[in-house]
Amino acid sequence: MLGRDKRVERGTELDVAGAYNAQFASVKRTGARTSMIVDPANGRMPPMTPEAQKIAAADRQFRLALLQATETCKNKSVACNGGKYDPKPSPRLAELAPRYNTARMNRFDGPEDGALPDRCLTAGLPELGGVSFRRIVQTPNGISMFYDVGQGQGWQRNIVMNGSPHLPADIRQWYGDSRGHWEGNTLVIDVTNFSPKTDVQGSRENLHLVERWTRTGPAMLEYVVTIEDPTVWTEAWTVRQEFTKQSDQANRLYYEPRCIEGNFGLPGLLHGRRMEDFAFANGRGPDPATRDNTHGSFVLDGDPLR
Q1: 3-state class of 272 per DSSP?
Q2: Segment (H or E) for 131
Q3: Residue 42 pLDDT level (bands cut at 50, 70, 90)
Q4: What are the strands, taking DSSP E only, across the chain?
Q5: Quick check: helix, strand or coil at residue 155?
Q6: How many CB atoms lie within 10 A of CB 51?
Q7: Which of 83, 127, 184, 238 is the most exposed place for a label (fewest CB within 10 A)?
Q8: Cα 51 from Cα 54, distance rounded (Å)
Q9: DSSP letter assigned to residue 219
Q10: For 154-212, how does the pLDDT look when each residue is reduced to its tens digit (9 = 90+)?
């Protein structure tokens, strides 16, 4: 996959692991711009606050500890940067994650040890990539957007357009609470009330989005979103993308998404790890803690701005 070659040497676990390559993933072009980020002007996310850096570092050190006895760290793979090799499995294997887990870790003691896509969940908003299809339906009193993401983790978004205020602060939703209004030909959507179980580059329940959707041509939508969380970044930042209208004829029928990962793959992952534990306890096979079941993905995945 372009820019994501994390192999150390031929024949290692990381050389042969992983189901997807560039054949399975699309890259959204930004045109003449060199970055999806248009503010700050340097095209980069603003610095994280000291507290956010501390939280991110604690989370990373926990995940690196779970990798310490694996070939990934033994071979000094990029996925183990900041960690160290120790043939003895980490005592932290039995610890709870420092915060609610959204990414892949080298443990599968329960469903929530898996990444969100393993559980048929998706990060959702803001639209930073990973969406293959949208269907937008306008009615007199509201707007609905249907999203197709990943391997069928589709979701429905309802945008309230009647001028009512956001939900009370104690009501949290996976995709937030969307309240929209028109400014000329631009649909402006204010999104708050995110769940603390979602994650956008470190931002969780305090995430605040202001989206601006503008029809710029017969087959073109401009999407500009300002992303703010003073507990995570030192300033707000803005991303711009352009979406091209697909064929009405080709998309006249669209089937309900089906997520194979969560329905079948997740029980298989859990069962496979229990069989590895059982075999090791009976003197057969390696200690599961010495095998990298993340394939280094927690370090390199989850960056929609790449």
Answers
A1: helix
A2: strand 131-139
A3: very high
A4: 37-39, 131-139, 142-149, 155-160, 177-183, 186-192, 208-217, 220-228, 237-244
A5: strand
A6: 10
A7: 184
A8: 5
A9: T
A10: 788 999 999 999 999 999 999 999 999 999 999 999 999 999 999 999 999 999 999 99
